[in-house]
């Protein structure tokens, strides 16, 4: 740094040394002593002891990288709501005699949140519509809804409908009960089975669907609305 006189500290140190060594007349010796003085005046203090060497090495070394504790970021999915406030979704339960669908959407019905069927939980085809498969499907749906922050559900229950059966299958009641037991709050329950004002012809023919009797003799047939039975009754 320059001082008040305009000289640096190094220059001042050399000048002070020259004043104390004016007896030297040889210019080569003067320049040599000048260099030695300048180098000695501004060298850092070096400790020759072993402990000093270790301390200086530690000071020069980079600091140790310890195990940095990473803050666990809590990722919350779903809408940001106040504590204790319910977030509703819509659970569409389609229970036929072949399978059971448990399908959760938002209130508009456009966005699917989770959908599990009874056939996804069992291996045998005959068990797809069973109450047990419907219960497992509903439990998976409830768990996924909790992860996404949905705490309550409106239920829309339906059967096949149309010109077929209007009665829900065996998995409907089991699925609804499993949702309630899993901690989901139930809002309104609505039956949305499609009922036609008029419909196309039902399949099965004029004589109806005929089933072969298991306990009877082979070849015998049973009709639900056969013309022969109607004629004998008349």
Automatic annotation (TrEMBL):
Keywords: Ribonucleoprotein, Ribosomal protein
GO cellular component, one term: cytosolic small ribosomal subunit
Alphabetical list of Pfam families matching this protein: Ribosomal_S11
One annotated GO biological process: translation
Example GO molecular function: structural constituent of ribosome
Bias (Low complexity): 223-234
Name of the molecule in the record: Small ribosomal subunit protein uS11
Organism whose genome encodes this protein: Patagioenas fasciata monilis
Gene, per the UniProt record: RPS14
């Amino acid at each position: 740094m320059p001082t008040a006189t305009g000289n640096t500290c190094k220059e001042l140190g050399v000048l002070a040394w020259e004043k104390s060594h004016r007896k030297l007349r040889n210019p080569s010796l003067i320049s040599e002593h000048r260099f030695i003085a300048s180098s000695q005046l501004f060298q850092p203090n070096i400790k020759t002891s072993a402990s000093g060497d270790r301390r200086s090495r530690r000071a020069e070394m980079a600091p140790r990288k310890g195990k940095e504790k990473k803050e666990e970021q809590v990722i919350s999915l779903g809408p940001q709501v106040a504590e204790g406030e319910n977030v509703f979704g819509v659970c569409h339960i389609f229970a036929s005699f072949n399978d059971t669908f448990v399908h959760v959407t938002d209130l508009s019905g456009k966005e699917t949140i989770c959908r599990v069927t009874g056939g996804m939980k069992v291996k045998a085809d005959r068990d797809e519509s069973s109450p047990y498969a419907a219960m497992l499907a509903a439990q998976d749906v409830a768990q996924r809804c909790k992860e996404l922050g949905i705490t309550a559900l409106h239920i829309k229950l339906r059967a096949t409908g149309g010109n077929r059966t209007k009665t829900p299958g065996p998995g409907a009641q089991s699925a609804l009960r499993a949702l309630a037991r899993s901690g989901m709050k139930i809002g309104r329950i609505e039956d949305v089975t499609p009922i036609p004002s008029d419909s196309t012809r039902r399949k099965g023919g004029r004589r109806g669907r005929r089933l072969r009797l298991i306990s009877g003799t082979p070849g015998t047939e049973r009709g639900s609305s056969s013309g022969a039975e109607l004629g004998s009754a008349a």
